[in-house]
Amino acid sequence: MSVPELETWRAEVRSWLAATLPPRTVDTDSGPPDLAVFRNISDEEESRLLDAVRDYRRARFDAGYGALTLPAEQGGAGLPASFAMVMSQEEAAFAVPMSTELISVTTGLVGPAVAMFGTPEQRKTYAQPFLRTDLLACQLFSEPGAGSDLAALGCRAVRDGDTWAVDGQKVWTSGARHADYGLLLARTDPDVPKHKGITAFLMRMDTPGVEIRPIRQMSGGSSFNEVFLSDVHIPDDLRIGEVGQGWQVATATLSFERTASGSGTRRKGGTFADVLAVAQAQGRTADPVVRQTLADLYVRAQLRAATVERVARAAAAGVSPGPGASIGKLLASDLLVRTGEAAADLLGPSFTADTGAPGTFAWTEHVLGAPGYRLAGGTDQIQRNIIAERVLGLPPEPRVDKDVPWSQLGRR
Fold it and tell me: Where are the strands (E) in 65-218, listed by range?
């Protein structure tokens, strides 16, 4: 399949968007800013958001603008990442329905993973419905004892004829209450080193033995969940990839975060512009200390934006961004914390007491949620390890468990 000329394709996209969505206007973005780092809405509101964005995603997929970078033989458009960047740029001018993390995980992570590692039947039955959002899928990876060290996971899957009996616990699962399926990592061989004994499965979230418990965060929201698995039986035809290939499935799935097509992603927390608005409302913009704080925030925001752009351009050119993605993640989490601290200092008592004034007490959701972003998507410590080892050339941390069978590590 030949690759179309980029600017001609851009014009086609713009024409399709204009026929599908209203343009983004000042009225589109009116109302108080969403300052929460992690969304705090009811299940009913989440369902309404999902309905709206799924209608748009289905139309986009049917028009040939879904799964842009996925190879054609796997159900995608087979285009370079630069086309996904153009799609994102053009969407910014239109009132695209607000997306959710569950949509991003379904279309950007689970769908491509099933398309890459699944059988032809699995691609037809699951991958395309995921990419089109006919089905929604969450990610059942992290566990209480296996977060940053994901390969240490202890959820067990034991072969039982044509099914697998699964027992264990997953945690920090976004969107589990609204998902149809979960992409599950489970340990199928405890007697080999930890990276080698893992297998991936698709699991229906309404399977007997699955219990989903919302995790109420200190910022108020409960978008994350614990998922308990008690004698859950998964058919072998829902296994993704070969037995023992789970670590390869996992690493490929996480790598899709860089190249998932489209945008529609919600900003996380308050921004420099929001802090500036607070300073203006408080009449503090002439204060030299406040001006210094604002200048520092602005510079950090620009540095983060430049890093994101550099990573995106590398992906568009088909080049691995290397540690640039880790640098960008560190800058993002640090900026979120500093942004909240600056707003809290400016607001004083209005930050902790809800007087009803807009844009004041709402900052508590940002300040309470920002520390969580230091953990989500790879902890700050892991990002620093990557930078230390791959940029600075420092020796890696000792790996005494590298070639030791998981069963001998004392983990259960």
Answer: 137-140, 156-160, 163-170, 181-187, 198-204, 210-215
DSSP code per residue over 106-118: IIIIIHHHHHHHS
In this prediction the pTM is 0.87
Among 128, 136, 152, 58, residue whose Cα is nearest residue 104: 136
Nearest-angstrom CA–CA distance, 324 and 22: 35
Give me the count of residues in the chain.
412
Give Dmax over CA atoms of the chain in angstroms.
73
Q: Identify whether the C-beta of residue 154 lies closer than 8 Å to the C-beta of residue 125.
A: no
In angstroms, the CA 29 to CA 311 distance is 28
Cα separations in angstroms, 1 against 5, 72, 348: 13, 8, 60
Q: Are 203 and 210 in contact (CB under 8 A)?
A: yes
Say how far residue 340 (Cα) sits from the centre of its chain. Answer: 22
The alpha carbons of the chain give a radius of gyration, in whole angstroms, of 22
Query: What are the structure tokens assigned to 314, written together?
Result: 């590398």
Q: Are strands 181-187 and 137-140 parallel, antiparallel or unpaired?
A: parallel
Q: For residue 145, how many C-alpha atoms fall within 13 Å in the half-sphere facing its CB?
A: 10
Burial of residue 68 (number of CB atoms within 10 Å: 0-12, 13-18, 19+): buried
CA dist 71 and 81 (Å) reads 11
Mean pLDDT, each 10-residue run in order, the chain (412 residues)? 89 97 76 80 92 96 90 86 88 92 92 93 95 96 87 95 97 95 97 95 98 89 92 98 96 63 57 95 95 97 88 65 79 94 93 83 91 83 87 87 85 62
